[in-house]
Design brief:
EF_hand_dom; two-stranded antiparallel sheet; EF-hand domain-containing protein; Recoverin, domain 1; EF-hand-dom_pair; 2 domains; calcium ion binding
Length: about 150
């Protein structure tokens, strides 16, 4: 991602217009920039910036560069994982099981509202199942909209 694009994203989160964002926004800004920071990365950021309330664009660029250098999971990794829950090999996962999993597992647990938004956007309401390939595509292609 070009620096101009990063700056544009950063500016969207700059509520005061003073060239800085709140530390609490880093996760959302990184996701908007196409990354998916995990728990250990977020914990490190919190520790590194625990005495600061805001960061400026150059600091954000350094964080983005460091995170971008880390390997990101591939589609195949996610497909393999979800296939464990897909006993019938249908490409579907039970909605209730998915909700429970997303709220309780992983480095970046989701809130019930975030999970509900994701599940509702993909769920076959008659069968109460979610096509997990579509879920993975949604999360990998547009983290901010998916809030994942």
């Amino acid at each position: 991602m070009a620096e101009e694009e990063l700056e544009e994203i950063f500016t969207l989160f700059d509520r005061t217009g003073k060239g800085k964002i709140e530390i609490a926004q880093i996760k959302d800004v990184l996701r908007s920039a196409g990354l998916n920071p995990q728990g250990t990365d977020l914990e490190k950021l919190e520790a590194d910036y625990k005495d600061k309330e805001f960061i400026q664009f150059p600091e954000f660029c350094a964080i983005h560069k460091e995170m971008k250098a880390k390997p990101q999971p591939a589609m195949e990794d996610f497909l393999e994982f979800f296939s464990i829950f897909d006993r019938e090999k249908s490409g579907l996962i039970d909605s209730l099981q998915l909700r429970a999993f997303l709220c309780m597992k992983g480095d970046s647990r989701l809130t019930e509202d975030e999970v509900e938004q994701i599940v509702k956007s993909l769920e076959d309401k008659k069968k109460e199942v979610v096509p997990y390939k579509e879920l993975i595509t949604l999360v990998m292609s547009d983290p901010p909209a998916a809030t994942v």
